Amino acid sequence: MTRLTQHGYATIAGASWVATALYFPVSVAVAATWSPPYNVREHLISDLGTARSPAQVWMNLTFIGIGVLTATGAAALACVREGRTAARSVACVLLVVAGMANVAVGLVPSDGDATLHKLAAVTYFLAHVGAMALLLLAFGHARPALAAWTATFIVVAIAGSVALVDDGHFGLGAGVAERFALDTLAVWRIGVGLSLLAVEFRRFRS
User: Fold this and answer.
1) Which residues cross the membrane (predicted)?
2) Which of 18, 33, 96, 105 suits a disulfide with 193, CB 3.0-4.6 Å?
3) Residue spans per domain, the chain
């Protein structure tokens, strides 16, 4: 019974993080409703959830949903005893915080309360990247592929954030820089989620 419960927690964690991939098709669909067209280079992600966006409700609901899924996956992972370390436990707490911050991003659009929206977005980024850094320690030599995956996306996300706050955005445009900073976090979650599901699938078959 214990093995089944642990399998269930790991499966929920993996499935929740893989499900955050819904953000990508929804954001593309919402951007497609814009007239004049949405400019990925110049427009920020949050612009999709403002009054200028015809499908703003769907985008904000997606922000909320992705936040809930992120937090749910982290809470489930925290319940998996195998491989648990202090670093992983704290990382799970930070990812719950990141998830709740993403919910706030959806509840408070940038054209509503810009200060609160920005605070939520910054909290999401810092908590998420901090969690990834701790998980990099937790994976260590035991999970070299996940460690390499995590290290790569930490570097990309931080580089994107630096480009975002730079006046010239390193020539990328604010929209592209923000995607390097934030969308990469979603890609990281999806990869880790798939890894968790793959491990559980192999155990189920054995």
Assistant:
1) 12-35, 55-78, 90-109, 121-139, 146-165, 185-201
2) 18
3) 2-205
Q: Using alpha carbons, select from 97, 76, 85 the residue that is nearest to residue 18.
A: 76
- The pLDDT tens digits for 77-134 are 999 988 789 999 999 999 999 999 999 999 999 999 999 999 999 999 999 999 999 9
Instruction: Name the nearest CA neighbour of 176 among 168, 133, 112.
Output: 168
> Which of 185, 191, 68, 97 minimizes the C-alpha distance to 139?
191
**CA distance linking residue 198 with residue 196, whole number of Å:** 5
Q: Where are the beta strands (DSSP E) in 47-203?
A: none
Per residue in 123-178, pLDDT tens? 999 999 999 999 999 888 788 999 999 999 999 999 999 999 999 999 999 999 99
Of 1, 14, 2, the C-alpha closest to 202 is 14
Rounded CA gap, 64 and 131, in Å? 20
Which residue type, as a one-letter code, is found at position 154? I
